Amino acid sequence: MRGKRLLQLIALAGATGLAACGNTTTNSTADGGNASTPAGPPSITSEPFGQVGGTPVIRYTITSGHGMRVRILTYGGIIQSLEVPDRIGHVDNVVLGFPSLVGYLNNTGSAKTYFGAIIGRYGNRIAKGSFPLNGNEYHLPTNNNGNSLHGGTAGFDTKVWQATQLNGGDSVSLKLQYVSPAGEMGYPGMLTTTVTYTLDHNNELRIDYHATTDAPTVINLTNHSYFNLAGEETLDVYDQKVAIYADNYLPTDPTQIPTGRIAPVKGTPFDFTSPTAIGAHITADDPQLLLARGYDHNWVINRGNNTGLVEAARAEDPKSGRTLTVSTTEPGLQFYTSNFIDGTFTGTSGHTYRQGAGFTMETQHYPDSPNHPSFPSTTLKPDQTYDSTTVFAFSAR
């Protein structure tokens, strides 16, 4: 990243004193606590969170009025923390993240985690950093085993987005916008993207993605939050149960590019059609698990002919009773179990993250779709709009 060291110094200076200001509008800390938010209408507040290249970064805190609170940065559209109550009302932060902007700016290279970020222009992998479109071959920076991952070396997760607050009745929204110039990271067309986070009084976080282009391009947006429903300060998620409503998944080659085969999950460690502990089969002697060091695959959601929101997955922590239900308009879901987190990252609570610290549920089109004509298309044309919705609904039982 150009000027990376300078940006990190600027961010460090801007983040000074954040510990003092970080709780000015909250009733519990980002790492959880027994205090819960008083019932009331949803609300939103903001505060400075450092700078990137002289551009201020703002942190927004959205409260549901029913015990849930989410903090979102204009840098990368990052969900920095997401606090929800358990079955007895104890509040914990259930996503992985860094306590300051410096943590995100320093998180680069092969160890990059993309904690909580908006991913674009193209989430997941594109083989060898190239794809054909309208008779042209486009080349992207490669940053993962010779492939392009999550939009390249400076994807949407590294941008400062323009923010607008939207208030209305039983919900509050934060609308983020970024205009990606033609040729950025090798992608054709100027892409205008908005991502709107909406939190309502039912403790549902809705993410609406919208984009337009002035030339044919490819697009695959998602959010890269890592969940730990027991609280981000706990060791791992292996005892938490997951159900993924998909009869098939996409096997990959050794560089984690889909082979093109759509394979049944039945009789394999990839069968989450009923609630199954994440750790139940993660160490099985399966070639796909061995190459990814765990789960890092795309499931083909059972959609039938439904083009609207469908329930794609559910996760539950048996100890706390917290439950996450994921609904989406997307055809795929990338389930990743923090296989390459190695104990070098310190989270919002001061806890060190290790392998298995969280899991992602990245709703998206399939990886490498531009190179697989049989996959659902990710091409966007000037006379079209890209629209996608995902809902993360939290409860406790």
TrEMBL record:
CDD domains: galactose_mutarotase_like (cd09019)
Localization in the cell: Cytoplasm
Spans annotated as Disordered: 28-50
Pfam assignment, any one: Aldose_epim
UniProt keywords, alphabetically: Carbohydrate metabolism, Cytoplasm, Isomerase, Phosphoprotein, Signal
GO biological process, one term: galactose catabolic process via UDP-galactose, Leloir pathway
Catalytic activity from the UniProt record: alpha-D-glucose = beta-D-glucose
GO molecular function: aldose 1-epimerase activity; carbohydrate binding
Enzyme class, spelled out: isomerase
UniProt: beta-D-galactose binding residues: N124, R125, H224, S225, Y226, D296
Signal peptide: 1-19
Subunit structure: Monomer.
Matches recorded under NCBIfam families: PRK11055.1 (NF008277)
Protein family: Belongs to the aldose epimerase family.
Protein name as catalogued: Aldose 1-epimerase
The organism of origin for this protein: Mycobacterium paraseoulense
